[in-house]
Amino acid sequence: MTQIELRGVQKWFGAVQVIKDLNLSIEDNEFIVLLGQSGCGKTTTLRAVAGLETIDEGDILIDGKPVQHLKAADRDIAMVFQSFSLYPHMSVYENIAFPLRATRMKKTDIDKAVRDVAQVLRISDLLDRRPSALSGGDMQRVAIGRALVRRPKAMLMDEPIGALDAKLREEMRAEIKRLHVKQGSTTIYVTHDQIEAMSLADRIVIMHEGVLQQVGTPEDVYGHPQNLFVAQFVGSPVMNVAPAAVSDSAGKASVTVEGAGEGFAFPSELLSKLNGSAGKPLSLGIRPEGVIVAHEAAEGFLPAEAHIIEPLGSYDIVDLKFGSQMLRARTRSGFVAKAGDRVFARLDPTQTHFFDTASGQSLGVKL
Amino acid sequence: MGRERALATAVMTTLDPKSRAASRGMSDIAIRNLFIIPTIVFLIVFNIFPLLYSLGYSFTDFRASSPAAANFVGLQNYRELLNDPFIWTNFAITAKYVIVSVVGQVIVGFGVALLLNRDIPFKGLITTLLLLPMMLSMAVVGLFWKLLYDPSFGIINYVLGLGRFEWLSNPDVALYAVAITDIWMWSPFVMLLSLAGLSAVPKHLYEAAAIDRAGTLYTFFRITLPLVAPILMIAIIFRTMEAFKTFDLAYIMTSQPTTEVISIRLYKMAFQEWQTGRSCALAYIVLIMVLAITNIYVKYLNKVKER
To answer: What CATH number is given to the structural domain containing B218?
Structure first.
């Protein structure tokens, strides 16, 4: 049972504010992923929770008790570092046993705990090795084992698999998920990799320049981004964003993307849902899978020219040129034969997002 | 214009070793030999030759003070030396001196390094000032400390309030007094190497240890010390070798029989008693002992490094 709460946390490095008024509440057993680009303050936030970094203002509460004045050792939180930080002069066994020996546990209890954890992590046959003789994946298993062995109140992970190669990363990702399901503990996980975030998180916390942008389930941040930053940060390939204008053409809504010439037809309720905002400069956002491509002209489809085709195996990403505006579409593999082909496309209204260009905030229009 | 171009070409040829060598018709190997051969000649003339020549003398009864030719006596010199209880007394004194001074230097040097291994103002300046003792000449240090130890006007007795305590003429204390001087002089050396070792311990290991709830002492003995051990070992090797062959400090500061370390005995044998052959044999015995001790350390160092 561990809840972690951040209240109005502020942190400066000299004149630079790296965490700006951060409020976050983490439930027991929840897997939270802090997602953001490097330098966004996510790692600093994690280190502040761990007690490796002091905060300048605000409170950090673990199970309702403020801990910001406690040393790392007194917070009973385990952490897995990106650099693994294994003790190079100790065997795997000694590494895992270290946190237990440091608190003077009984030898037999330590032995049992270490062997149990090693079994869970499938590193039982590596216990006598030195860290330098391990592969990257095994090093990280040991680091996780060292964190798990003491059954901490919470687990913090700072890009734990960022240093591994792509294949291993995928494997370890699944393993971390498996472990969390099996062992269950409140976890804060920092990464800049949105795929990791989407696949692991119960809730994702997106940060940008020290400011929390959005907290939500993976479906939430993907499907309903609250602002342009989140919209373009989450999802790959990246969401199309373009300045757009909404007009009323004979009772029907028409959305004109800047430079694209004609407007796309949208359901008329868009007009009422946009009320008030229709006059402001808007940005339209649509993920490539929301751009529907056809070979034949049809009602609501606009002509476009295929500019670049990126085959990605199970699907293609096609850059479509509408007048001077470029939108990327996701199509069936080989659907558009070659660059320069003329095709027709429309925007799926249910997958279209509208943002206030000035503030970047979503207008919350759902069609 | 022409001059500038010539200058530019000259600079280019100077900077580019290949073209310079080519212009003089010298290969890389020739240049390498040019640099190496003087050193090798110097080493052979001043180190290797005397070493081998003295090995030859150690099997004779040669006396540099007498015109008589050297007679081959086989292992007699070695046999007599190793059976001489006085020589063993000298070795015992040397061992005591080595242990006291090296242990002292490691404790003081490593301790100061621990104090300096953090963010403090004027760290660079303090470190440089602390290094000064080891930059002084041994003879000068010996003379200074003789004055400091002086029973009637020395500052040490004054500060410690010991009255007219005899340091250097007291046979029970003199060796320790010399060792203290050596500790003062050479602790900075251990400090310097320890500081290098300490700053090489990755900071993230300390963070990991803090997260793992390790206390200060536990962290020191389980993380810091094992990781600094190899470089500390190197400092200990150097200091042991040096202390083992100490001559100048002890010779300048006192003349007690209890401070007659093996080098002083060797010096007296060679240049006061003129037993040249015998002293060569003793020198070889000392050399073999130093090599043996160093070897033990090196073995241990390799074991530590394996981890």
So the answer is: 1.10.3720.10
